[in-house]
């Protein structure tokens, strides 16, 4: 695609920061934009695995803790641990949608809930209501790791996931300068928490995590300017 058509397709406002970063070299602007897309694709693939692994660990934990296979529904209702909390209203909303389609099962409800929902279970109100043991799903966490730290770092991953989902660039800092440190740090956090869940990163992300190669290519491109 020729640059004018590329710019029209995506808008001058969106392409502008990429163009400025590449000193308005059109070929390199397109290349940087494509690298950013590849970065989003690879990161989202890793997020896909991590998100499912996290929610499944939480599910196993609370099934055992509450001794209920459908703990989401029961614990969000009157008399339940989460009743009256924000998480309960989210569960009820998704339950009603599934019920209207005659599709409710615990597993369907589990998969309907967003990554943001699962991270809110580590917020202090939900953490306390749920028995203050949910952090133990991270079986390989360092001794002394607190709920507050886990909550803050999972929220960083959540914010990063939202940047990807909303097609926001991952290669700039808050000053619109080329800077991969944000993405590199979030990538490291995802791998760290995967490891803490007790999984071997090289096994579950096999064929997905080649980000070191992409980071190197992007850094090489950025160092020219």
Q: Share of helix among residues?
A: 55-70%
Strand fraction equals: under 5%
Are there runs of 5+ residues with pLDDT below 50, and where?
A: none
Mean pLDDT: 93
Bulk shape: elongated
- End-to-end span in angstroms? 24 Å
Q: Report the strand count.
A: 0
Number of helices: 12
Question: What this model shows, in words?
Answer:
- The chain is built from twelve helices and no strands.
- The chain has 225 residues and is mainly alpha-helical.
- It has one domain (3-222).
- The radius of gyration is 21 Å and the shape is elongated.
Q: Which terms summarize this structure?
A:
about 220 residues, elongated, mainly alpha, 12 helices
Layout of strands and helices, then pairs:
Layout: H1 3-10, H2 12-21, H3 26-66, H4 71-75, H5 86-100, H6 106-112, H7 115-120, H8 124-129, H9 147-165, H10 181-196, H11 201-204, H12 211-222
Helix pairs in contact: 2-3, 3-10, 3-12, 9-10
